[in-house]
Write a structure and sequence with these properties.
Blueprint lengths: L2 E3 L5 E3 L1 E8 L6 H4 L9 H6 L9 H4 L5 E3 L12 H9 L3 E4 L4 H9 L4 E3 L17 E5 L4 E4 L3 E4 L5 H9 L2 H10 L11
Parallel strand pairs: 3-4, 4-5, 5-6
Antiparallel strand pairs: 1-2, 3-7, 7-8, 8-9
Length: 190
């Protein structure tokens, strides 16, 4: 695993290896962070992540695992908890052919890499991807690899978003820039 250092000198990985979790099209924010549990803390919300699709997911996902989804991943509300529960459960990246706009932005704001890959988990070219296979990603190279399915090239992540991931999300990224004198509190952010 490769890593860089963020502002508090803790390592933030840029290459990850875990297991694949495969889901289809239109995984929405209510499946990720069910509305019935939104009044509770992230621990409780996370226990119910994806239970309507795969009741075993929250109990069995492990740090380093990667979620492979279909088209329109993260559609629905703007709730940040949909991204936060994935991070809380240890998911290090989500790979899909397309993401809902708000989910995409929330992912990077919270430091979760989202890789847009034209070979979705449900396509013929990636049909060899099944739950539990060893999987990894390299956000710098925008590549995903799955045991037995090979390497898939994804769309490059813009450098400013990779920097946010490395820093642990938008708030940590801005704090690092301010601490380094690269940004003043009144300066506009890209």
């Amino acid at each position: 695993m490769s890593a860089v250092m963020n502002a508090d000198m803790s390592a933030v990985a840029t290459k990850f290896t875990g297991r694949a979790w495969v889901f289809g099209d239109d995984i929405n924010t209510d499946l990720l962070a069910p509305g019935a549990y939104m009044k509770f803390g992230i621990d409780e919300i996370a226990r119910h992540c994806m239970e309507a699709v795969d009741p075993s997911f929250a109990a069995n996902v492990r740090p380093g695992d990667i979620v492979f989804g279909g088209r329109n991943f993260g559609a629905g509300s703007s709730r940040e908890q949909a991204v936060e529960v994935l991070r809380h459960l240890g998911v290090v990246a989500v790979v899909a052919p397309s993401f809902a706009g708000l989910f995409y932005r929330n992912g990077f704001n919270l430091g979760l890499p989202l890789l847009t890959c034209t070979a979705p988990a449900t396509s013929t070219s990636a049909s060899a991807i099944v739950n539990g296979l060893r999987a990894g990603c390299d956000i710098d190279a925008a590549q995903v690899f799955v045991e037995g399915a090979g390497t898939m090239q994804c769309e490059p992540i813009p450098p400013h978003l990779v920097a946010m991931i490395r820093d642990g999300g938008l708030v940590a990224h801005l704090a690092r820039k301010i601490a380094a004198g690269q940004l003043t509190v009144n300066e506009e952010v890209q």
